[in-house]
């Protein structure tokens, strides 16, 4: 069983981050057409991220700054945004090249897991998908 590590810092949306399993890595990553990205984790968990939601959650410095200033991110409509490429970054993250040309965000595995929208992960966070 994976040890849980509590993250007490705020995420890029200003909410206190919740605990996520430590050292959990994707076993498989799949694109579902132009709708979503599915991650199957090595602990058996399954996350499905709508493309617009994941793009709007980009962890790069520019996107974090714009969210912090409550400015709109320079992205296409959520229905039009989709990944052109998904690549591993070392053994700790995924890099995604989006159809709006943005490719700066490195989605650490623990960040992806915190962003999961499933009912098991999302209890009480108040997040909704795009």
Number of strands: 8
Q: What separation lies between the terminal Cα atoms?
A: 32 Å
- Specify the helix fraction band: 10-25%
Number of helices: 3
The parts where pLDDT drops under 50 for at least 5 residues are: 1-16
**Annotated CATH architecture:** 2-Layer Sandwich
Might you state the CATH topology name?
NE0471 N-terminal domain-like
Number of domains in the coordinates? 1
What structural class do helix, strand and pairing data support? alpha+beta
Strand proportion, as a percent range, falls in: 25-35%
CATH class: Alpha Beta
What is the makeup of the main sheet? 3 strands, antiparallel
Order of helix and strand elements from N to C terminus: EEEEEHHEEEH
CA-based shape:
globular
What does this structure look like?
By secondary structure, the chain is α+β, with helices and mostly antiparallel strands. The protein has a single domain, classed as NE0471 N-terminal domain-like. Helices cover 16% and strands 29% of the residues. It is built from three helices and eight strands. The protein has a three-stranded antiparallel β-sheet with strand order 3-4-5. Strands 6-7-8 form a three-stranded antiparallel β-sheet. A two-stranded antiparallel sheet has the order 1-2. A hairpin with a 7-residue loop joins strand 7 (93-98) and strand 8 (106-108). The chain is globular. Mean pLDDT is 80; it is low at 1-16.
